[in-house]
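Example record for the data management plan.
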Amino acid sequence: MPVAALAWLPTGLAALPVAVLLAARLAFANLDGAPARETGRTTRRGAVLNELGDRAADLLVLAGFLALAPLWLVAAAGLAATLPSWVSLAGAAAGAPRRNGGPVGKTERCLLVVVAAASGWAVPVLAVIAVGSLLTAAVRLAWLWRELA
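Corresponding structural encoding:
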């Protein structure tokens, strides 16, 4: 798990396992619904489980920073990192297309975690994740606001 590698391995040595595990996390996050959609076996419960699993995985990755940074900053980054998805989900619930992307989405957060694992810059990376995630949520909300007008 990236959380264990980030928390327990020395800076630099953590970078490769964190990168490999986060690449696998991204691959599985993108592939988990594809077979269900291709075979016509999607369910509303599956969609809920998918979203809950994605949010839990995001938070679990950031929990690896608990050994490296102040609790308040890890919590702030974790909460901020979930906001872009909540905005997208709220938009989808209101009938808008699901909006992804933005300055600091899931892929960019994973890259930033690898940077922290390689460099030891846990505090600056968490700050970038927090601020960038808030900006991403704002960008998605502005798009959504126009879409639903």
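Summary line stored alongside the record: The chain has a mean pLDDT of 91.
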